[in-house]
Design goal:
With 103 residues, this protein is mostly helical. Helices cover 52% and strands 4% of the residues. It is built from five helices and two strands; from the N terminus they run αββαααα. A two-stranded antiparallel ribbon has the order 1-2. α1 packs antiparallel against α5 and α3 crosses α5. The longest helix is centred in the C-terminal third of the chain and has 16 residues. It is globular and about 50 Å long.
Length: 103
């Protein structure tokens, strides 16, 4: 499963079961960002977390991770779903190869 597929599946879990804060959640209560990513693919949870973190606003990257961002008091489900869309798009973007210097 690719990172983009994990993120799509995680987003789908939140759309279907709802969104929560301060707990990972489950299908009964809904999921937070990391709860959904972990449920979507326990093996790729770290990659999903990192991909989601890259979708956070640039002024927050490296300061606030996905869990703290999810749990912010005024955060909304709509913001979470938009962030998943951005993370999916970034995960699907082809990686640019580094150019080698000439001697």
């Amino acid at each position: 499963m690719t990172t983009a597929q994990v993120l799509r599946k995680a987003k789908g879990l939140i759309r279907k079961h709802g969104w929560v804060q301060r707990v990972f959640g489950n299908s009964e209560t809904g999921y937070c960002v990391m709860g959904a990513i972990r449920r979507a693919s326990p093996a790729l949870g770290v990659g999903g977390r990192d991909a989601f973190a890259n979708a956070l606003p640039s002024h927050m990257r490296g300061i606030v991770g996905p869990t703290a961002w999810n749990d912010a008091p005024r955060r909304t489900k709509a913001e979470v779903l938009r962030a998943f869309d951005k993370a999916i798009a970034l995960a699907e973007k082809p990686k640019r190869k580094a150019k080698r210097g000439r001697k």
